[in-house]
């Protein structure tokens, strides 16, 4: 464990830990796992109270303030916002033993108080509490020690409760590799799933202060003068964070999930795949785990396709019909197929295979090799290649068949993601370039939707029989007309994009 500061009564640390959720079967199996046989189990009961203001000022500042009862004493803990994804967490934390049952902010060191919003300690009140039994093992590794902690109990906010069943692996000494090696051993034998939220996040959600909402991509504003490897890791971790932020919301209502959750998870994985495709421009090979990334994207794709068909395509077609009730049989069949697709996606998201993939991704980033080139050099090489690939196809726009137009759309998507990744090079010029590219991509997306919809209509016909034929014909006809209009719009969108200067190029004399 890395000690950042030291004080006779308070310590600031950076935790490096892996946190996973367990089902009831895994809770029973974990204490008997061979990896823990060498360690002596130490048990204790923990009771904690989390404090905040009535308007949740600490929450908005990314701060968790907790009092935990330890024997006859209380220990105050302040945790700052996490510095990476929720599965592999790194966050500063300050612990202080205090005399009473109320928070005492005056005992915090200067660097901790600097993170706190300006709040009156008398305004702080209990928001929720946690009560659980903790079993801990100190596991010796080849070059250090990892603490394995099993927590079982519940979170309470008023009359609402939420179970706690999770395991945390915290690196005490040694290399991060040993942390992942031990995690891999446990995951290979236990049914686990991802839980990126801390107990504090879940407690705030239970208290109604932190509603679950879909989260869009937020890319890090890395320094263009940093190394290419550091820039890639920052981009990749932002993709993982976006996926993790949307996972709990999707799984909270698996029977009728908000379609935006699965959409944003797919966006996160497409971004990660696009960023990983740029590794060759810094002289690195494509990682072996890309195949598993394709698996995950495939597991989510069908749910997204049916979500769009039911919530967007059918609604758009119905609005243009004199007799929209003709679509009702098709809508009923499509809704059933949509539910089946989302059930399939839910099983994949709860599968241990996803956990193994996530550990692989986190490990790859934690052990990413040093790169000799800088982020700016990497960005310019990658953007130039992606731009030329798009121009080669776009300059033959009038000759492209549907398959080649699909290739044009994919090339545009790869360029757009790269342009967004490297926007910190020239933010203002990048916004103009990305805006025009996004419009071109939207037009191409509508044309691609026609091909996707044709496939879904065939599946609906097989599932529903002749009762859906009329509706399927109406949808196909509507989209054929829409496609003709979009083909006319495509040429204009391409010419508008061609006119914008690539923002990464140096000005010509």
Main features:
509 residues, alpha+beta, Hypothetical Protein Pfu-838710-001, CHAD domain, 2 domains, twelve-stranded antiparallel sheet
Q: How do you describe this structure in short?
A:
The chain is of the alpha+beta class. The chain is built from 14 helices and twelve strands.
Tell me what you see in this structure.
By secondary structure, the chain is of the alpha+beta class. It has two domains: 2-206, Hypothetical Protein Pfu-838710-001; 228-498, CHAD domain. The chain is built from 14 helices and twelve strands. The chain starts with a strand and ends in an 11-residue tail after the last helix.
H/E series: EEEHEHEEEEHEEEHEHHHHHHHHHH
Mean pLDDT: 90
> Would you state the CATH class of the largest domain?
Mainly Alpha
**Helix proportion range:** 40-55%
Q: Radius of gyration over alpha carbons?
A: 26 Å
Structural class: alpha+beta
Give the overall shape, derived from the CA principal axes: globular
Corresponding CATH superfamily of the largest domain = CHAD domain
Please give the number of β-strands. Answer: 12
- CATH topology-level name of the largest domain: CHAD domain
CATH architecture annotation name of the largest domain: Alpha solenoid
**Number of helices, where a helix is a run of at least 4 consecutive DSSP H or I residues:** 14
What characterizes the major β-sheet? 12 strands, antiparallel
Number of domains: 2
Given as residue ranges, the uncertain stretches (5+ residues, pLDDT < 50) are 1-13, 83-88
Report, as a whole number of angstroms, the end-to-end distance: 54 Å
